[in-house]
Amino acid sequence: MVVRTFFNPLLLILCLAFAVRIGLSWHPGYGFDIGVYQGWARSAVELGMAESYLTQVGGNMTPDYPPLSIMMLTGFGHVYKLLFHEFDLSSVTFRMYIKLPAMFTDVLICTLLYFLCKRWKNSTRIGLLAALAYALNPAAIYDSAIWGQTDCIYSFFLLAAVAAWSYEKKDLSAVMLACSILTKMQGIVLYPLFALLVLRTSPKELLRFCIVGITTVIVVMLPFAMGNVLESIADVYFGAVGRYGNVTVGAYNFWWSLLADRGWQIESSVSPFGYLRYSHIGFLVFGLVYALILWIFHKALVRSEKTDALFYCSALVTAAFFLFLPQMHERYLFPFVVLGTPLIFMGRNIAIAYWIMVIAFTMNLMGVSPLTFIDKALYREFDSLDVFVATTQVWMFIYLVITAYVRYAPRAAWNAGRRALLSSR
Predict the structure, then answer these.
(1) Alpha helix positions (H), 254-370
(2) pLDDT at 90 exceeding the cut of 60
(3) Strand 248-249 and strand 328-329: pairing?
(4) Residue 59: is it exposed, middle or buried by C-beta count within 10 angstroms (0-12/13-18/19+)?
């Protein structure tokens, strides 16, 4: 029994995922971001979580992340101080340590994907492949272990919300959705999709779902309310929109495919067509694409293809968020990496499209924060590579949307409409 436990395939995959990440975490990554996280953890420990929203030790920038992120950093900060007694922001140890929340979360994502895909496909093999796919996903490794970012944390909560709903644990799904937006504002991306799901339930279930979510928010906010910093936290949320005025902030997306690196220089408030600003066009296109995805999802729900469509459409929505909205950072495609993992098991062509987008996303990260002299030289020698990457992302997304339509839209209704159109001629 001991031998079987030791060689448990899932345990080996989880160990592999963590070993790869901890082995790369020595990399200096994106120094500014890592330094800010270190400062937030230190200030939260030395000044208190609430006070850290107002004042930072050493002149560090005050947090622009929601409270659950600061609570996590506070916990890790206390453990670090217990182990090492003082905060040395220049030490390699602290740099590697501050990446641990993201790396641990990556291991949790592998675990959740295993159980989710195992149940969905009724196959242990599929579950293990899903866990392995994320464990070795280059974009996930680059973002968490090398760059030092925490996008995987709110992405985990989004995946957990999807998983809980597929397991018919609606209360848990509400908690996870609340936690996603309490970790990072971008967690709101799945709210309209879940609104469609919740509105299909009974009024009692709808009310319960909302109460559970609101209660979660209140519980997390309580320590900060007692510290009288709710106004500062509100500024974090309301300031998230429009904080960066550029059409794109390093995201190789739809806008980059049109404007190239000029998108990083043009303000989203500029009007390329009359009174229409880039920001207006971006929100309009995103809204239309989101509406199309919701329509496809609705058709799938009518046909009782709930779990399959929930995975697919959740991934599409997160990709649309990155591709079409203005002011996008290069990292904001990360939830697609997580939520899109089940796409690997929906057909060969869909899997290929997913991996192409993952590779393109990894190249996007390298284009903004290079890993070695090789990727620096690559972008220097091929000055249109960034536009090619952006255009590839757009076309792969279009393919996935078309495939979703073919997969979930009722063919009978399509054929009936076509016959009606032909008969009217």
Answers:
(1) 254-259, 278-302, 306-324, 334-339, 348-368
(2) yes
(3) parallel
(4) exposed
| Alpha helices (H) along 48-99 | 67-84, 92-97
Distance between CA atoms of 394 and 323, rounded to whole angstroms? 7
Q: How far apart are CA 416 and CA 425, in angstroms?
A: 15
Task: Encode pLDDT of 301-347 as tens digits.
Answer: 887 668 899 999 999 999 999 999 999 999 999 999 999 999 999 99
Q: What SS3 class is residue 248?
A: strand
| Cα dihedral value 377, 382, 383, 387, nearest 10 | -120
- pLDDT tens, 185-203? 999 999 999 999 999 999 9
pLDDT in the model for residue 244? 74
Tell me phi and psi for residue 309, to 5 degrees: -70, -35
**Exposed/middle/buried for residue 378 (C-beta within 10 Å: 0-12, 13-18, 19+):** middle
Spatial distance between the Cα atoms of 66 and 236, rounded to a whole number of angstroms: 7
Which element (helix H / strand E) includes 98? none
Instruction: Write out the two tokens for 226.
Output: 């007692």
176: Cβ contacts below 8 Å, ≥ 6 apart: 157, 158, 160, 161, 164
Of the candidates 394, 393, 402, 399, the residue with the CA atom closest to the CA atom of residue 296? 402
CB 116, CB 163: distance < 8 Å: yes
Element (H, E) at 278: helix 278-302
Judge contact between 360 and 252, C-beta under 8 A. yes
User: Strand pairing partners for 249?
Assistant: 329
**For residues 134-158, b (16+ Cβ closer than 10 Å) or e, as one string?**
bbebbbbbbbbbbbbbbbbbbbbbb
What dihedral angle (degrees, nearest 10) is formed by the CA atoms of 227, 182, 238, 147? Answer: 110
Contacts 24+ apart (CB under 8 A), 200-204: 200/301, 201/170
